[in-house]
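Lab meeting notes turned into a lecture example. A postdoc, R.K., suggested we walk through two folding results consecutively so the class can see how the record format repeats. The first protein's sequence and structure tokens come next.
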Amino acid sequence: MVAAMMSVFTPLLLALLPAAAAEPGLCQIVRQKAITDVAPPAVIVLGERRGTQPDLARATRAVRGLVRQGDVTLAMQAVGKAHQPVLDRWTDEEISLTDLPGLVRLEAEWGFAFAPYRNLFLTARAGVKLVAIGQVPELRPPGQTVPMPPSYMHVLSEATDDHPLPVESEPDFVQTVTWMDHRLAAAAVASWDRQGYLVILADRFHVEGGKGISWQAQRLTPEPVHAFLLADGDASCYAADRVWR
């Protein structure tokens, strides 16, 4: 049963990853200063279009701006959790930049090339702590509870307009997305010592509308949580979104 459900949801989630549609003209337009003006300690969630510029260049600029003000932990969905030892060895300068792409396996597992993320990995040389939080979609395990944002299916339905779900599948779909949001947020928060900044860089599908990772993270830490989308990409946005343009 689980395999059958995931055979429906996983392709749909992958199809939605580049960007989700949303209600037009309601979001707040910001610049880098809105991110770097956040006072520590704080959690900052950045929504990226996978492997896309200017999103990743902006993420790097934001991280480099924040590290001038305090410690920074950068939790990256692009890197699978199993590769944390690789990030630790990279931080300890035991791995060369030439070897790093083959070890973190972004192209094979994340679906996008290493090159756009290169400068984010290099922030480790400026003292940034790198954390791998990437995980594959899965159904919420039986008996496992997770908080669910109100009206989340309303937000997700905007994203699924081109890939409509049968009505009977909607509860399982929203629980699958919520479970991923929660796992990503929990892995990131668990890696942070609550000093300085925790920056979570994740696919914008899990950031848009303020009901994804940021909503989950706020329930896992008393520190304030701020969410930003790194580009508009000519897409619409929700009232809860702050978009770097």
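The second example is placed directly after the first for contrast:
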Amino acid sequence: MFIREMETEDLYFATKVELKINDIVYRPSICYKIPALAKKNLEKLAAEGKVVFFDEKVRFVNGIAVSIKDGKIVTPVSSIVNKTTNKKKAK
């Protein structure tokens, strides 16, 4: 899917190989916001299969793109959810 076919303003992309566009190095499995001046270059790279576009920000878990809802982790981590008590014992 090309950028001009997407309707949303905030578009994101990820690379499958390390790329250098406009003197900026983009690494695989990282979600980047599409820079205004790099749209044409990214469309060419998408046709070659080196770039994947997303209509929302994603994170990568074991190489797979996972959706992020409002910047929060969808599944809570048990070590963060469990509350700890700070009781000090008298000596």
